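Researcher: If convenient, please comment on what follows.
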Amino acid sequence: MSMHEKAVREPLFHISKRDALPWWKAWCIRIAAVLLALVFCGVLSYLLTKQNPIEIYKTMFDGAFGTPRRIWGLAQNLAMLLCISLAVTPAFKMRFWNIGAEGQALIGGMAAAACMILLGDKLHPTLLLVVIVVCSILAGAVWAVIPAFFKAKWGTNETLFTLMMNYIAIQIVSYFTYIWSVPKGSGQIGIINSKTAAGWLPQIGGQKYLLNILIVLAITVFMFVYLKYSKHGYELTVVGESENTARYIGINVKKVILRTMLLSGAICGIAGMLLVSGTDHTITRDTVAGRGFTAIMVSWLAKFNPLFMILTSFLIVFLQKGASEITTKLNLNNSFSDILTGIIIFFIIGSEFFINYSLKFRSAHKEAAK
């Protein structure tokens, strides 16, 4: 090489794709990320608030587990987030990016509320519950299959389509909330059938949320078996890996897309029904409360494994409950709890990079040779 030529410097490090890590190593990396995030949040909270970080974490724990009521509330929120996460998972495994779970669950809840309001005094309580379940499932399924049909037929962008369907669902709920508001024009429906409890899911053992949790647990087991051992689960996985391969081996891709989104929307409809008929006993545009978007992260972090989604859902709900308690008990700004939650989630998401990729630094002997 001539003196006028510049030496080519090797980068300090380069990124390479890892081979698949054993599941326990991957979870060790994720746990390490959570611990690092907690340390970072502790330092940050001390610098900004002069509050003892240990007291902040004790408050977070107390906000989630401090009383039996808080424990049941945490379990209920975990179940609802898990249910919607399970709903989007088949679509995601198929590489159909269903961003519309928020609207699909909201429409399912809207169907449940409509049955409670319009049929609450006309049907036997048992029959009314059956009608509510069926209508909620159908509403969620129809709302999901609309973008699936356009995707299968004309190849439209499912991400934008399902996202826009969320806003339509929100406006529909807002309209009927005004129509059914009590008192008229207030924009609030209030507790539906508060005197008769018509359309409310029954309590088991005196626990308001236990039936919801058991239903979601059953859906979790079903989804695990469906994705791992059923023919339909195999077909949607093949379609997600390569549509051309799926067609080559005789899989009807359009049929799989429609079938998978019907299932996804149906489970979202169940989630909406559980929120309206089993939890809130009313409907507002904020009933789903952003769970449809949070579920995307839950499903992705769990690598579309329904059993691991229990852990990721628990982590997200615990952080939300704990951060809310910090804001209330320590008289901190509402945004501070969101900052802590965001930092921890950022570390968890960042850990996925180190699970899938490795950093290889420039070796010392090469540097010495240069």
